[in-house]
Amino acid sequence: MSKRKPSRVHDTLIIGAGFGGLGAAIRLQQSGHQDFIILERSDRVGGTWRDNQYPGAACDIPSNLYSFSFAPNPDWSRTYSGAGEIFGYIKGLVEQFKLGPALRYQQDVTGLRFVEEQGYWEATTAAGDCWRARAVVMAAGGLANPGWPNINGRESFAGKVMHSARWDHDYDFSGKKVAVIGTGASAIQIVPELVKQAGQVKVFQRTAPWVLPRMDYASPDWARKLFAKAPRSQQLVRDALFWTHESVALAVIWNSPLTRVTERVASAHLARQVKDGWLRRQLTPHYTIGCKRVLISNDYYPALQQPNCKLITWPIDCINERGIRTAEGIEHQFDCIVFATGFDVQKTGTPFPVQGLGGRELAEEWQGGAQAYKSVNVSGYPNLHIIFGPNSGPGHNSALVYMEAQIDYAVQGIEALLRGDHAYLDVIPAVQTQHNLELQKRLARTNWNSGCKSWYLTADGFNATMYPGFATQYAQQLARFELADYRAVDRAAPAARRAAG
Amino acid sequence: MASIDLEKMLVKIKESQWALADIDWDAPGAERITPEQWPKLKAFMADLMWIEHVGARGFAAMAKKAPDDTLREIYTYFHAEEQRHANAEMALMKRWGMLEDGEALPEPNINLRLVIEWLDRYADKMPLYVLGAVIPMLEIALDGALCKFLLDTVDDPVCHEAFEKINGDESRHLGVGFSVMEMTGYNKSFIKVMQMVLPLVDPRLLLGIAAYMPLLNKMRDNIVEMGLSEQKLYEVMNKFERIGGRTADGRRNPWFQIIKHHARLVVDRGNKIYHVPVDAAVKITGLIPARLLPAVPSWVHELTWKPTA
């Protein structure tokens, strides 16, 4: 129940002040729409890049591509910038586009409900506020909440526990015995840094990742100056990076001769950096490259071979108050356990209850796996635009390219709603069903669905996360908001609306 | 088809985990090892812990070959469990004062060393059905038999406690082993059977056979030297034929047939054609100086008698 008076009905409510939410605000603003509010659960903007500030945190896509095309930054310090710099860029967007007045901090949304009679969405927050708007951009973030592994006794450990997505910068690792659970994207960035600080590091691996070399270089001064003076030159670099990454789709999304070539490159990288046969064997993946997220690192393998580091591949039996017991019968004791176990990615639910037309619950409908239309809209939940909704994940290109396409599509949808003065625009169910049938048919032929277990899939193997194609194709399908795909209900005719519903 | 539900088996395996720390290695009873037993037992235990590791390395290779995630995870556990057995056996050796300087690994005999070398080089390249038949045989013939003999001779309650746990694990290993043997023999046509036999002409496998045969005879000699009945070893080996051949699918597996016939040769001491050359091979391999063998693989250094790390 809200404690305070509900807000007036805004045009748009944006949930989340990370890349997605701020990007949507900027594009709305640039389209001439100023009446929006951004709700942020924390006291700062930044989303994933505010929360993921662990040592070594950096982007896996070159910064010139991992930034908005409508907000270029000529000053990236490296090819792959660190989390701090990316966080700085996001904070800079607020100043550059004067978004401050629209931001409402410490507004953790607890529920979202479509009030059909009045044709607006109502968001309640943990702070007791109630916000209303005709359209909603839900940019709550796919990687917003830490994911914890299901290990017996996880809560019983008496030492320090840390999650990569909620790093405790005050904890002193010097001389400490540290466990790192997980060998995904976060872990391979954390381990090289921890090995420099801690007394002993043991890395618990369940599945070996494919690791490619990282072409990371400091940006030369002349390039920064050139980009500042001639933004077109930076755009050219961005285009080149985009098409290079696009070509990678042929290797990682589908099983092709290029897949073998990429596997060879990764194997050669492993062979060059790891001489010991057994360690190399332990670090050799057993699945097709691309099935799980492909990682890039030059310092992960060397870090594992430092005298104070050890890779443990025995299955974990349980965690107790002293450490981790593994199936080879040994209790590995630690001062600190770092969970680099990724995020609780919403594949079958929603971050908070979302109630659509006729009181339908989105989480209930997504129980078997999330589905949407073009990953942005969901039938029965009108005027709701999801950033990084179902099947919008890239495996080979910048997430921000996908995000920009989603944002622009959402802005077009909001414009169509406001321009037509409709009560709502709701995806026609048959259109959504057909879209998903085709999507799943295409997904069945991808490496993601080739048999390995990954965070892309539900427990039943349903892929609700990835888009089975090129970024170009993805952006293409979102380029035009086709009104014909939606049921438009007039604001002036509630009775007719009910009859139509 | 598999005669056991592998999903349920994986759950059972996860629920049956134990650790070295669950056993009080300093509890009374170590003094029950007699001075006469001590030297022979020391050699016996060293071989036993290395045999566990032959199984461990085999399971590691099978995990790579497993046709699905469930079986892969089961074999990953089995690999770790065999290592746990080796660790526990080292902890017993430590308890009985059999480790030279408290840290060192016991030395494996030369035939074991050759098998370990072969496994490390070639096991990952062998098809699942070959390993899937050889490993249950080794588990029955060596691991199973040796454990049984040990419990018949050693009176230390801590040893019995440890082996109660070890044998619990081994029974699951054998259950899965025979089930997979049936699975790989399921509904095979003549052509498929012939394809499965084809690796017999693979020189890498021939090398493996050349290491495997003397190992069995060497272990037989060791057991006899310990004063144990050779007949008991053969009875246990016959179990392979009895259990593996209980279903038509199991019998249709050509590798079951090959291993079974080989086991018959091993237990038939009157068969000079087999035993004279193999016994000679035991003698000849015994002459190979340790320095001629390549360095031990780094997984060897994972072994530890310490319950915590």
TrEMBL record, chain A:
InterPro entries: FAD-bind_Monooxygenase_sf, FAD/NAD-bd_sf. Signal peptide: none annotated. Keywords: Monooxygenase, Oxidoreductase. Its EC number is 1.14.13.-. It is an enzyme of class 1 (oxidoreductase). One of its GO terms (molecular function) is monooxygenase activity. Gene3D superfamilies: FAD/NAD(P)-binding domain (3.50.50.60). It holds the Pfam family Pyr_redox_3. PANTHER family: FAD_NAD(P)-BINDING DOMAIN-CONTAINING PROTEIN-RELATED, L-ORNITHINE N(5)-MONOOXYGENASE-RELATED. This is Flavin-containing monooxygenase. It comes from Isoalcanivorax beigongshangi.
Automatic annotation (TrEMBL), chain B:
The lineage of its organism: Bacteria, Pseudomonadati, Pseudomonadota, Gammaproteobacteria, Oceanospirillales. This is Ferritin-like domain-containing protein. InterPro entries: Ferritin-like_SF. It comes from the Bacteria. It comes from Isoalcanivorax beigongshangi.
